[in-house]
Amino acid sequence: MKTKMKKKFVVFAVLALLVFACLFELGKNTLWGWAVLLALFVCAFVLHKTVFAGKKFPLRLLAFVVLLVLSGVVFRVSGPPQKQIPAVSGKDPAVTDVVRVKQGALTGVFNEDKSVEVYAGIPYAAPPVGELRWKEPQPPASWDGVRVCDTFAPRSMQPDSSVIMNTLTQMVGYHNFSISLKDNFVEAMSEDSLYLNIWKPAGELKDCPVLFFIHGGSLTTGNTSYSEYNGESLAKRGIIVVNCAYRLNVFGYYANDLLEEESPNHTTGNYGLLDQIAALQWVNDNIAAFGGDPKQITVAGESAGSSSVNAICVSPLAKGLFRYAIAESSGITAVRPYHTFRSFKSAVTAGIALQEEFGADDLDALRAIPAERLVRTKQNNASMTVDGYAITEQPYKTYEKGKNNEKALLNGFNVHEADYFTFLQKVTKENYEESLREVLGDDAKEAAELVPPAPVDPAYKLAIVEMGGDAKGSFNKVYSAAWFSYSHYNWSHLLAASGTPVWLYYFTKDNGSLGSAHGGEMPYAYGNLDAHKTKYDDSDYALSEHMMDCWVNFVRCGDPNGPYQELGDQAYPQWSRFNDAPDMVYEFGERVGMTEDPNRELHLLIDKYQQSLR
After folding, report:
1. What is the pTM of this model?
2. What domains can you pick out in the chain, each with its CATH number?
3. How much helix, strand and coil, in percent to the nearest 5, is found in the chain?
4. How far apart are CA 506 and CA 504, in angstroms?
5. E strands of 388-545, at which residues?
């Protein structure tokens, strides 16, 4: 009997150790935490064979419970520290020559082969803290001496899931996980986050074209150090790449009548957008110091970053600050945009609700709330609005008047855009039509007839927790069109009507990571497949080369066509302008070239519904 009890203890102790080991790895706990955990279990085994040998079951059970409690305490107190991310990997990278911008002198670092110079953490505005919270971005302070710009600044304040949830998201969504002792940290976060980063070809430059990139994240999350945003590969192709952080969620898109009254420009609700425009202005004022040409700037963005590009294209504040635009998987030109945009009335209503939530009677009380507490608000502040200053009217009206800013547009969407946003929703033949009412109102019946109910293709099941249903595949197709691809159909038509050149793409390449879901094109277009190289094969790298060529050609001359690399013995085909082939898209996938728009009939139906909302 005693022998059986001893064996049971060993079995349960080993199982407990394995469970805690999984938690510590998923939670990125520190090395000292691992050491203490192992020491606890070693001590437990020793005590089991000595002090507790022959003791009765209740005492052994108590000892086991104490072991579990102590392990839990160690897990809690040995969580990962916050850390800022180096601009380049490797120890002691070579330092660049001194560059002088308007605020002072600075240096960056070289990448490993010294083909690219990287300048990270350059302030483009004053820290928006204290009295500057919810105010238009102010000019950055000057500095003495030489500022070392070799590390990304902290990410903007944003609601954070637990480290374990973030790791599981990487595993389930990106299929990206490896046991490592180098990732036992979380990226630092701060309200002081208005910094930008620059990647440039090494050496002397003059009049070099510039790509100014805005990250996505639903205007709620995101960071400029993310591997998919790295500008090194495009810089090696001869352009300068810049990205910037901006205020997010309640810090970037909170609206309040009191704030409008105190603003010299009578604005509220678009602080994140104003940050982006301030960063773009900084680039105009200073990029020549890096060899860039302020007259050859292309603004680009993905997801909420693409919606932000769309806003910059209609903002009178950005007029003359850039030339071309690249927009990936979002826009706000619909009569009633599906996301990242709201009415001013809705914005102010949410602002009042936030005041009530925190019991704040005035602006002083609101600004006194710690950022760490404020970011956990229950109110949704993740949308731009017509504030009369940064955005003066519904964006589609600006396009109809021909007062938009971009001189050419490269834009597009992916085949499985909505899948990750709907995976927890079950859709059956019985609730299919009703489920579509949220995006198509009374036209949901017509949409259900146009796209008959069908399940998710088993060959393309993104998440292991996909709720499914015998109409889920069709539901995802309609939602992908409404939330994402219609934005580009509509934006392209509005521009083409004024004679502005437009190129429209369609990304379909499957792979071991995000596939052709939302964001799946990013590592291809910006040349960052190596960040998850085990998830891609030679065909992926060939497609990435082609997409990078298209993006760089567009930045240089407003046309993606140029001297492409060959795919086997077949050169890549010509990408026709949307203006000349409005029912066609350029496919990036196993097949490359012009093809019929797969959502054409859906776009026409969504457009009919949207026009009824005028």
Report:
1. 0.93
2. 2-77 (no CATH), 82-192+216-272+330-385 (3.40.50.1820), 411-611 (3.40.50.1820)
3. 40, 15, 40
4. 7
5. 409-414, 502-507
Closest CA to 529 of 539, 252, 353, 358: 539
Percent of the chain with pLDDT over 70: 93
Helix segments in 441-521, DSSP class H: 444-450, 472-480, 486-497
HSE-CB of 582 using CA atoms within 13 angstroms: 14
Within 127-207, strands assigned E span: 146-148, 155-156, 186-187, 189-190, 195-201
CB 44 within 8 A of CB 61: no
Among the listed residues 78, 303, 485, 544, the single catalytic one is 303
Name the 3-class secondary structure at 14.
Answer: helix
Q: What is the model's pLDDT at position 9?
A: 66
Q: Among 17-26, 278-287, 418-427, which range has the highest average pLDDT?
A: 278-287
Q: Is 303 a catalytic residue?
A: yes
**What's the farthest any 2 CA atoms get from each other in the chain?**
89
Lowest mean pLDDT among 47-51, 77-81, 125-129, 429-433: 47-51
Which tokens is 221 given?
């999350």
Task: Specify the 3-state DSSP secondary structure of 495.
Answer: helix
